[in-house]
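hey team, just a heads up i'm posting the complex here instead of the shared drive bc the drive is being weird again. everything in one block, sequence lines first with there labels, then the predicted structure for the whole assembly after. its two chains so it's a bit long, scroll down
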Amino acid sequence: MAANNHSLLNLITKRLALGLLLLLMISVIIFAGTELLPGDVAQSILGQSATPEALHNLRLEMGLDKPAIERYSHWLSNILQGDLGTSLSSGKDISSMISGRLGNTLFLATTAAVIAVPLAIFLGLIAVLYRDGIVDKLISITTISMISLPEFFIGYLLILFFAVNLNWLPSSSIIYSSMGILEKLQAIALPCLTLTLVVLAHMMRMTRAAILNVMSSPYIETAQLKGLSSFKIIFHHALPNAISPIITVVVLNLAYLVVGVVVVEIIFVYPGMGQLLVDHVSIRDIPVVQAVGLIFAAIYILLNMFADVMSIIANPRLRHPK
Amino acid sequence: MSDVHFLEVQGLEISAYINMPGEATKTLILVDNISFTLKRGEVLGLIGESGAGKSTIGLAAMAYGRAGCKITGGTMKIDGVDLFKLSSREINKVRGTRVAYVAQSAAASFNPAHKIGDQVIEVAIEHKLMSKAEALDYAGELYAKLGLPDPENFGNRYPHQVSGGQLQRAMTVMALCAKPDLIVFDEPTTALDVTTQIEVLATIKHAIKDSGVAALYITHDLAVVAQVADHIMVLRHGKMVEYNSTDKIINHASQKYTQDLVSIRAMQKQEQAVPDSPAILQVNNIAAAYDGVTKILKDVTLHLHAGQTLSIVGESGSGKSTLARVITGLLPPMQGEVLFNGKPLSSALKNRSKEQLRDLQMIYQMADVAMNPRHTIGQIIGRPIEFYFGISGAENRKMTIELLEQIELGEEYFDRYPAELSGGQKQRVCIARALAAKPSLIICDEVTSALDPLVADGILQLLMSLQEKHAIAYLFITHDLATVKAISDSIAVMYQGSLVRFGQKSMVLAPPFDDYTDMLLSSVPHMELGWLEKTLANRKMQSADN
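-- predicted structure starts here --
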């Protein structure tokens, strides 16, 4: 027994180590990628009228003359010590620039997830319960039309209806730290709704497919022959065995809620990581872009690792060895 | 026990609707005008080949039809109430509480995500028949009664933590737990090894007697049902062939079909003498493992002469299929060597010559997955002729048709696809495909296990006549002792990776036996009333003697 619990721990440790390795590789890619961007930051800071001397001095000052490998190892060791560096354009500390923005992005993502994930799974269950019937088709058609529309289009449609025509909600979602939680929630209602509609279909379809896949198992027939209600069968007997693929898709969507919100943040002028990224790409503030990229990658990897670990734990054979 | 027939089935008819795109819906009658009655404490055996409709009848006793099936006629009355007239809510109240079901594969029928105990008491709890404490108590009592180990804690285990035989007993406990009036046993011992089957069979029989429940016992094995049933109904193609007391069916069957079922294992091959010539296949001290550590095979040595049949018999996990993988080169052994026609075979498949590959062919258990469903029968059989001998075109076709005739299918099958053939016909095509390479040795891996007894008999007879004609040697892997007796010249008995007994058939099957072979041989059900009790009593005496 103890030896086998050990193997479960082993599996999880392996996933964690793999995740860290992946993160390291991604840091290389991010660094190399930003190196490949055309132009350089000194040029964009000084503008078209910069003199060659001024450019040279600024490059020296920012260390841009050193070889890439040296700059990478310097950058990485700083990050490992918690120092994300300073912004080239504003000279501010990147960590403090990001912390507020990251909080905002996570706030929006969490709110959207709290609504979208239970709703998607619930709709998936309902779809299975009334499979191939009118309710099932209605759920499928609505969610799939939502995913088929680009998110900026959904965003603008929502603004048109709820902000312009009905005037219920604000069209821009600027939030401050001094706002109360209710005010904040009201401010992010529209971007939150947009995100929910975008991620709903994927999770709902997966829930439906994964459960239907399990529904043809002999143990479902056993449950039916016990005279259990359909809902009990689906919820208690089918869902636990379908949970692994569902977790994977849910987590993919959670990751999307964090790192894929760039467009939505821009539409609703939301002060999150996406906006920060776009702003600093346009002025070639490479340290900021690298830091944001790395944080996005870390969140992505972390969430996927979480999904893997959950799938391992969800398997009774691994949880309760012989 | 009352004398009243509490279950009355009248004119039961069940149909399947087949929807083919672009065609009108076809109706197929699966069960046609079946009637029977049952008293409390009585067991009715439903017997027939696959497709006879026996499981369909069993499920109809719970007003349940599998996908595509519909109950289209008749009545199913329990204490005078016709199940077919109930609403789905009312039927749910009957299922599990008054009629319970024990499936063939308990391993697949238990939910892997929940503890056994929770599933066992679920019916009693969900239908509010008992409090949780009462149900747990009663389940514990039943675990003990059915001989499950550590009855207090057995329910806390997950299905994957117990053995197949235990799980099958746990499924019987699950059915008994809500104290139903009728239990439908659907091939409850078919998936078990023969030594496990006899124990499970005894516990099921005891449980039925003890609880006074009535039972429908569904199986394709007449010898098994003869041990538990009071009456037997023989079914074929959804129709009743014969319905009588067990004694009448076994000893005085009136219908030809029933007589065939009773006498099925009469075939016996005359054992051939050991020739002076060297063996065609010589396996020396083979040990093998899949992970390089745990030995699945331990020091196996055996041999087979040209034109003879060696049966390797053993239960699941005995290593018999692993041995076949070593001989075919799919699994390189850790030690030992395989000599084929006197020359060592390379342990790795890719180092074997084309001639060696041709000379050693295989036939598998599952004929349908061993054939490409998008190739015609002609392509399937013609392919090895072209591959090994380079013959194509008209000559290839001629040879393929000759092979088709040898397996008692004709030219008309040349352009058909595997899906259009029955299970037995598919296995015949696989035999022809192996034969096409003109091998001197064919490894047959459980080739008749997936087939009905009568069909399997036909396949065995075909294999024997082909052996006579072409002097092919067979290495026959099986768990079925009746098959072993029917076809072997020599027999190897395997147990947990070791060779327990090896020699000529007359020697292996004659006393004095080693303990394992004795248990194995005595566990095979005989077509005789009271065999189960007699065997178990014998065993008790023997263990008392020791």
